[in-house]
Specification:
Length: about 160
């Protein structure tokens, strides 16, 4: 699959994510700050970079980690709405993404599902896809390509991804 974010962003994200999994608290804290800063400044770019990383990282651990982090970032409260008021719907970063970014994000996630060789990473992909699909439906954004892909996957024999759907 072709890259959707510049290589320089991918390289920077690789370093940040590598630092997030280190045992050194100071390095990890700085990496958390870097993630929050990047997502606050350019959320679409960094969320797409995380999704792309989930399909391209060298290790299962990093692909899984990027999927979990992506899901967490997508649905946390948007920076403009730090406190949730019960009378208002809770807005997340997902709600602020453009239609084009959401479509690209969905395409990357479907690619992850259909091409991931590791069952454990594929489970993380399914978890993320389910949350994105659920939140999309709640917001009136059905994900027709997911329906088509899951139907195709159920028609495949064992080993073709059927265990995911």
């Amino acid at each position: 699959m072709e890259a959707v974010v510049p290589q320089v962003i991918t390289a920077e994200l690789t370093q940040i994510l590598s630092n997030l999994v280190l045992g050194d608290n100071e390095i990890r804290a700085n990496a958390e700050k870097a993630v929050n800063d990047r997502v606050a400044r350019t959320p679409e770019l960094y969320l797409l970079a995380l999704a792309q990383f989930a399909t391209a990282a060298d290790t299962e651990v990093m692909r899984s980690f990027s999927l979990v982090l992506l899901r967490r970032l997508l649905f946390r409260p948007a920076p403009s709405q730090p406190h949730h008021h019960p009378a208002q719907p809770r807005l997340s970063l997902y709600d602020h993404l453009s239609s084009q970014t959401l479509t690209t994000l969905e395409r990357l996630l479907l690619h992850s599902l259909s091409h991931e060789p590791s069952p454990s990473v594929r489970k993380k992909s399914v978890d993320t896809i389910c949350d994105v699909a659920k939140q999309g439906m709640v917001r009136g954004r059905p994900w027709h390509a997911l329906q088509a892909q899951t139907f195709t996957m159920t028609q495949q024999g064992a080993g073709g991804g059927r265990e995911c759907v």
